[in-house]
Design a protein that fits this description.
Largest sheet: 6 strands, antiparallel, barrel
Order of helices and strands: EEEEEEEHHHEEEEEH
Number of strands: 12
Helix content: 25-40%
Length: 247
């Protein structure tokens, strides 16, 4: 299914970090705003999906778009509808929004940190868009987040213990305990076993759970973590145990 109008938005699409989109239908009785899943944003509109709402071509809606601490709100028009990977995507033209996307993303309103976040997000979405199937995109995004999360943990850990020594008076050598394999989409780190008694090297990667579409993180020893934060907490607990043994 594909529906569109001739004056759909033609501006370059931006894939921005920390974007939140809320949509409300225009109706006489009023309705509440519903959180939607952003796809991209341009100066003249945006694209999103929704699990709760259905829209028609040329339907007018109210939107709230948050980019970090900046909020854009106002009226918009559904100008494009397409079915992709069994998900309906909606393209929207802004009718009357305040402030404009250009004003919200002006250099005067952006910090250096925000610019770096934008740049990283643009690179990430470019890689994700190379993947045609939705499941492949989900796995690739999970891999990127796994790599970023574990790498950030590694760098911060090394920074925090750089002046400390082990029980033999030697500086900690922790960098070599982390391995990143982009081909296999995996990270290898030391990890305690499920009983917390033995220390082994585990390879972790995102997978789709057997018989479902749920994305989980699985180790080569058979352990499963439902989300990235559980993985990072387990790595943190392991290194707490390793370092406490050295004191």
């Amino acid at each position: 299914m594909k529906k569109t109008i001739s004056n759909r938005r033609n501006d370059p699409r931006l894939h921005l970090p920390d974007v939140q989109i809320r949509v409300r239908k225009q109706s006489l009785g009023g309705s509440t705003f519903v959180d939607c899943q952003p796809i991209d944003v341009s100066q003249s509109g945006l694209a999103f999906t929704s699990d709760e709402l259905d829209f028609d071509l040329l339907q007018k809606i109210y939107i709230e778009l948050s980019v970090g601490h900046r909020k854009i709100e106002g009226k918009a028009l559904i100008c494009h509808i397409v079915e992709k990977d069994e998900v309906t995507q909606y393209g929207v033209l802004f009718i009357d929004v305040t402030p404009s996307v250009e004003e919200a993303l002006s250099l005067e309103s952006l910090s250096s940190t925000r610019v770096k976040d934008f740049s990283a997000s643009i690179a990430e979405n470019m890689v994700l868009n190379l993947k045609q199937k939705l499941d492949d995109k989900r796995l690739k995004k999970a891999q990127i987040h796994l790599f970023d999360g574990v790498d950030a943990f590694k760098k911060r850990l090394i920074e925090l213990v750089k002046d400390d020594v082990d029980n033999q008076g030697k500086p900690y050598q922790l960098g070599g305990l982390f391995e990143f394999d982009t081909h296999a989409m995996s990270v290898t780190v030391p990890m305690k076993d499920a009983d917390g008694a033995l220390l082994t090297r585990c390879t972790i990667k995102p997978v789709l759970a057997h018989g479902s579409k749920k994305l989980v993180f699985e180790t080569d020893t058979g352990r499963t973590f439902s989300n990235l934060f559980d993985v990072l907490q387990e790595i943190s607990d392991t290194f707490h145990w390793i370092l406490s043994e050295q004191i």
